Amino acid sequence: MGKIDIKKKVKENALFQNAFDLFTNKGFAKTTISDIVERAGLAKGTFYLYFKDKYDLRDKLIVHKAAQLFTEAHQEILDQSVEGFENQILCMTDYIIDRFKKEHNLLQFIAKNLSWGVFKNVFGNSNEKESVPFYRYYLHSMEQYQITCEKPEIMLFTIIELIGSTCYNCIILEQPVTMDEYLPYLHKSILKIVEVFTEDNMT
Amino acid sequence: MGKIDIKKKVKENALFQNAFDLFTNKGFAKTTISDIVERAGLAKGTFYLYFKDKYDLRDKLIVHKAAQLFTEAHQEILDQSVEGFENQILCMTDYIIDRFKKEHNLLQFIAKNLSWGVFKNVFGNSNEKESVPFYRYYLHSMEQYQITCEKPEIMLFTIIELIGSTCYNCIILEQPVTMDEYLPYLHKSILKIVEVFTEDNMT
Amino acid sequence: MGKIDIKKKVKENALFQNAFDLFTNKGFAKTTISDIVERAGLAKGTFYLYFKDKYDLRDKLIVHKAAQLFTEAHQEILDQSVEGFENQILCMTDYIIDRFKKEHNLLQFIAKNLSWGVFKNVFGNSNEKESVPFYRYYLHSMEQYQITCEKPEIMLFTIIELIGSTCYNCIILEQPVTMDEYLPYLHKSILKIVEVFTEDNMT
Amino acid sequence: MGKIDIKKKVKENALFQNAFDLFTNKGFAKTTISDIVERAGLAKGTFYLYFKDKYDLRDKLIVHKAAQLFTEAHQEILDQSVEGFENQILCMTDYIIDRFKKEHNLLQFIAKNLSWGVFKNVFGNSNEKESVPFYRYYLHSMEQYQITCEKPEIMLFTIIELIGSTCYNCIILEQPVTMDEYLPYLHKSILKIVEVFTEDNMT
DNA sequence: CATGAATGAGTATTCATTCAT
DNA sequence: CATGAATGAATACTCATTCAT
Question: Global pTM?
């Protein structure tokens, strides 16, 4: 990567980071491009060299942040040497919840914007540096622990949607209960969902 | 209700309905108050006699639409004379999914905006005409069928969040699969969640 | 016309007049909508209640100004009691040239923008107050003086185009000669053109 | 001309040609320097090595295109071995009209921009390669056919202005008639104008 | 010579809100 | 009660020009 390319990457990151801060603090609608470039220390026109408009920046930012989160969740499983498929799923759950508890901003941003379509992008997008081996690892882990699951994608989808939507309510709104109170039920629900998809007698 | 009150109600409904159409077709951000009043056949100033601003209208609209939906789901259970608690839950699920399949607009609007906080409003809000006996019926049904559940609210919360978020993906985006394909898994997952909250051996 | 309609007309005229001054002094491209409303003493948004954009204003202004000019040329013929068809044509020519000599602004504006399509609008546009009986008078005059002309419209077109384009060069640019020097040749050329279209032996 | 000079000429021509295409398709005002260099396959900065700005390019382009046109009209007269002064004038007229009929772009561009001032440049500008012997030939031809004309320049001016402005209306706008219909009248008018300037009894 | 990333002044346009009628 | 003309702050986006490479 040449000197110029490095400079460009630095600027793109400055735009990403400052946009994220503003989106999560002021809200997307109230954040202006002027705000973003001002905080990033760049000229207005420079913004348009990197992104088409505010929406383009947001879409790319969602993928960027979601990829980061899952990469780190995956790393956590490795760091903790968690054994067993269900334990790994719960470890991922807990890691994500923990991050969300610490970073409401991140939760707010991801929860409102992350759809399964975007999610798949996160794993498939090969020219993203942060491209995650998470999904591959997830499939590999089932194999390793000899778990039979005909629809692994649908199972993961169900689990992640449940985590995402309940997190938003319990952590941000503390409705109907706090996440601390909800967590045991969430764990049990997730394990039951795993059962649904891995029982032998699927019709 | 006097003549004048009826006229006012008519105008309010015109604003509600046209705002809903516009929000769901053009998106909330791109819908202007001018758009709404123009379609409703009213003058700009009139808008402010009914709502504080666009956000005020939206918030009231969410409650309005959600209350309608659950009232109708409840009615469906009664019309079909569905027996058994689980069957009633599944009937509600199917009714909601059916409506969402027919009215993507409604799904989009509710899914993006309905939080548990709003949801509770739907039941508690006494000055809403459509205020629903749904939640009361839900509790009553558990009693009738002698279901022991320590946290009925949390159970309903879990089920509804799962329905809401998966509907959005499967129906609107058809990701990762269509709702027709997903439905059996959703049913099983919901039944398992009911198990989680009604088993005797809750720790 | 109600009070409000009068107020609206006043504002429209303020926009017209100030836009004309600015277009002719700074040029169309360099005149901004801000300039126009500022000079007219109106708010920016008000502009858009009257015109779609700068181009819309310009197009309407051309018709407005051209109609004015021909109405006045026609009036001049009446005031001077000019007799004879050719004399009336020359009187019109001289009046227009005279106005252009005094108001380079007007010449510049009209010459660059007046096409025959617009010109016909000037006569036909019935909801313009200034709508001119000029063309009707022109036909009537030929009849009165028993002039036979198969293509009166094409004759007028030829004359007016010649006047317009030579005026621009001789008056504004003084190229290749000044209008004072050119005028006798222009008169002769016009008379010859009248001959072309009114000779008996047209093929 | 050295290798480098040839390369430069190639680039200049690329800028000329692409600018012409853009000016005539999108209009001058809406054409940006970025557009031009992009189509020409050059870098933005390169533009400024050849032209001061967009206006500079346009002015040079007008001369360039007008010179080309008159050179070709002149060549046509030679190729066809047209005899007689009036016939040569009409041949030039027909050639120009024909080109304009085939290339509306060219007509639009020349008609809106060509003033007599520019026109004279076309003949006088010695560092233009295409510089035309047209005007010299025009004078020479009158001499050859023993035509007495005190103001040859004014005569040519009158003719060319009439051609230019009527072409624009009849060819582009087809107003008030098409050029096919107008042409006989134009020919007659031009011949009459020649009469005006060549009659013995000029006052 | 040629490049193209970066700049930032400049402008059009929108739209919530008010208030005289 | 209802209207809709007027407002003007707020913002997105463009593009000519420069200059380090």
Answer: 0.84
